Structures are given as C-alpha cells and as structure tokens.
Amino acid sequence: MKEKYNKKTVVGIDIGGSKINLVLWDGRKIIDRWHSRGVSLAKLKAGLDRFPAWRVGIGLAGILDFKTGRLLDSPNLRFLEGLVLKKLFGRQVRFDNDVKCFLRAETKIGAARSRGRVLAVALGTGIGGGIMFQKGQLYRGWHSSEAEFGEMVIDAGKTWEKLYQASQGRPAYQKKLHAQGLANLVNIFDPEIIVLGGRGALTPDRKLLEKLIVSPLAKKIKIVPAKLGNDAVAIGAALLWDDKK
Hints:
Blueprint: E1 6-15, E2 19-25, E3 30-37, H1 41-48, E4 53-60, E5 63-65, E6 70-73, E7 92-97, H2 98-108, E8 118-123, E9 127-134, E10 137-138, E11 153-155, E12 158-159, H3 160-165, H4 171-189, E13 193-197, H5 206-212, E14 222-225, H6 232-238
Parallel strand pairs: 1-4, 4-7, 8-13, 13-14
Antiparallel strand pairs: 1-2, 2-3, 5-6, 8-9, 9-10, 11-12
C-alpha cells in the first residue's frame, strides 16, 4: 500500500470547527496547500487524497487519548469522537491538540524560534493553550488535558473563556480581560515569551498586565503575535514527523 505514497513529504492537517486546512510540507517549507470551508469526514478524505504523502500529521481541538488514539471530546468535531485517528486514512498518522501544534510551529520556525520557556495562547471560538518548559519539549499533563487556559476562573466563578465569549464587540473590555488572564499565566509559569494566536488575539492592556504581575523582573514579559498565520497549526502538525528525516 505505502509504495504508492511519497515518503519524503508530510501532509499537515488543521481541523477546525468550521474549516479544514492542509499543507504539503517538504521539511523546510510549504510546497502545496488545500483549504475547505465546512468540516466533515468526507471533506477531510477528499483533501487528503490530493496529496500522496505517506506520513500525515493532524492538529485538532479537543481532548485526546494518546494511548487509544481517539478523540474523546470536541464540541465542534463530534463526527470524529471515538474514532481511532491512526486508522482513518490507511497511512502513517500522528496527531496532537491544535494549540500544541501551533506552539510547535511557532517555536520551531515562527515568532518564538530558539526560545526555551514558551506559552502559547490561542483565542478563537474559545481559548486554548500550550506549554513548553524546555526548548523543543512540550509539557504533557498526566491525563493529557494540560494548558486549558480558558477554564481559568477570572471573576466569581466565571472563566476566562466564558467572559471572552460574552464580550464580543467590546475590545476595550477584552484587552483588560486578557491582561488578567495573561498576568495569571506569568505569575504561575514565569515564561520567557508568550505567543498569541487566533482571530481573537488582541494586545492586552499593558498597564494593567504589569500591575498584576508580581515579580518586577517579569513585568516586561514579551508577548508577541504569531508569525505563521493561518498555517501555524497545519505546519505544527507536519512537524510531528520532524524526528523522521
């Protein structure tokens, strides 16, 4: 079966709640891409059929079970829940959470390249996160449910994500809200740099942010926008195969 596939390239797939983004990656750059509006298993397979690469990397939102290879819970990807992802396409497949893929790409070739201790925060439909404590090594929680930054309680039982979702169209409030959330992350993790991504990524209220950060040394924390744009997750998914040259 695998003889008909190209072994030198990798397909990176970003499966979002409303779109699918595929890139064909040669180890250094994107050499082709495909995009679909709307998400379904049929569209996913149709896009993948365009690229005869043997290795596939997938980034998707939700809680993953790496032992069984299943997506356990994802409100926007119910059609994939319970399926063994590695057996879907008849190819070699690796997968990870979408924000972890985003972080992997931005630390490898993007805004946080060559940085050691990095946090990623993605603000889209919700708020997701990723943690890198050592250069090139993502932190994994015991149950693989780490970095759910959006579930952080900000105000009287209300989470960062819920407050963000309820404040669309109020950018001044959101800047203050993000300052609170990011200050909490700095106080807990003390990262070298934070990379912000997603369509909801706004520069936080810097004055409030520095007021809420405890350490004088951490008040000047670098908070930068993502460099790789809409391709970051798909590139990061392809980089799941970076150990196989």
